[in-house]
Amino acid sequence: MPEGKPAGVRCVQLTADARCAIFGRPERPACCAGLQPSIEMCGSDRSHALRWIERLELATQP
Length: 62
Prior knowledge:
Elements: H1 30-33, H2 39-42, H3 46-60
């Protein structure tokens, strides 16, 4: 997504099973590569992590 990914828009690099299609590749954006998992972000289940990411997107939208 050369112009960046707007909040709430699914990344074009996500596969059907919600995995990054370019994980570990040089063309992966720095903002993605720099996102490191933590207990705060991941919580105890997938739904917690998705809510955390949604809040991050909302907080960083233009």
